[in-house]
């Protein structure tokens, strides 16, 4: 179907909206040249139709058809190269994402060990604070008992002095 000039213009694959918006001048030039070649080759196409049916002239292509095929081939090669480049870029990005994910996993595991160490330190600090509070309570009790002994000693000395003063009189 691509070998016949009439149908090659009609059956040409439509461009996607992205491609159409990127190359509006190229499209209009291609349409104009295709219409001109269509008008010129209309009698040729009818005569070639008879040749195609007979199996003759399979290898004969007009220069316009050859040029159209070359342009289409160049366009397809360009699209394939663009797709190949995009696939390479995506592949590179996927590899980079994989590498970053491995780093992220490594950092999370490192944080887990750090958190465990901090937890152990906090538990140890809590135990030390409890022991310190108990030592302070014991010290307060011991200090209070010492005060009672000093007070008892002073009271006894006072009574002794009073007794000696009374005895002396």
Automatic annotation (TrEMBL):
Classification via CDD domains: SNARE_syntaxin18 (cd15850)
Signal sequence bounds: none
Chief site of localization: endoplasmic reticulum
Alphabetized UniProt keyword annotations: Coiled coil, Endoplasmic reticulum, ER-Golgi transport, Membrane, Protein transport, Transmembrane, Transmembrane helix, Transport
Disordered: annotated span: 1-59
Coiled-coil stretches: 66-93
GO molecular function terms noted in the UniProt entry: SNAP receptor activity
One BP annotation, GO: intracellular protein transport
InterPro entries on file: Syntaxin/epimorphin_CS (IPR006012)
Main function: Syntaxin that may be involved in targeting and fusion of Golgi-derived retrograde transport vesicles with the ER.
Protein name per UniProt: Syntaxin-18
Provenance organism: Thalassarche chlororhynchos
Organism ancestry: Eukaryota, Metazoa, Chordata, Craniata, Vertebrata
Gene name, Swiss-Prot/TrEMBL: Stx18
């Amino acid at each position: 179907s691509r070998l016949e000039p009439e149908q090659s213009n009609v059956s040409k694959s439509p461009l996607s909206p992205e491609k159409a918006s990127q190359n509006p001048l190229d499209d209009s030039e291609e349409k104009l040249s295709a219409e001109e070649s269509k008008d010129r080759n209309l009698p040729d196409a009818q005569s070639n139709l008879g040749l195609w049916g007979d199996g003759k002239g399979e290898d004969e292509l007009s220069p316009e058809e050859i040029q159209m095929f070359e342009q289409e081939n160049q366009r397809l090669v360009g699209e394939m190269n663009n797709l190949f480049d995009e696939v390479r870029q995506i592949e590179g990005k996927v590899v980079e994402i994989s590498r970053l994910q491995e780093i992220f996993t490594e950092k999370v595991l490192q944080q887990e060990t750090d958190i465990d160490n901090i937890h152990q330190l906090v538990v140890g600090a809590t135990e030390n604070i409890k022991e310190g509070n108990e030592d302070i309570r014991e010290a307060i009790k011991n200090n209070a008992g010492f005060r009672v002994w000093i007070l008892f000693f002073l009271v006894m000395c006072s009574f002794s002095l009073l007794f000696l003063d009374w005895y002396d009189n």
